Amino acid sequence: MGFLSPLANDEFSMRLLIGVQEACKDQNLILIVRSAMTQREEQEGIRFLRAAGVDGLLIFPVDGEAYSEAVLNLKTEGFPFVLIDRYLPGIKTNAVYSDNFAGGRIGTEFLVQKRPSSNRDHIGHQIENVQLRGPLLRLPGHGQKRRD
Fold it and tell me: Which residues are in the Periplasmic binding protein domain (predicted)?
């Protein structure tokens, strides 16, 4: 099994890697891990892992455009892969991802409960990278809770 991800320099990434390792161990699968910080490195990582003989890929895509050429090639070639926390709108593929709408609603609900009623109109939602779909998908959940 191949696992391709940006460098694991945060708790989420580390927990994800540990979970993948444990699942592979439980299934007696050999895991090959490769990091990629850019789409070019992602493309090279996919090529490397396939050349290494993996039977499938778990891909946590780099930030940016989701329609990477390398990932689309996997789809057209029928190579087994699963995207982690990303999906390709309009293209049927295997993916696991967060319910960002619910996350936005729950996060806003938590803040509303913790803030004095006089400050409840001053809760914001910051998006640093508009190319990432997750933060954009959390925004409607944030807005719904603000309207409730």
Answer: 2-118
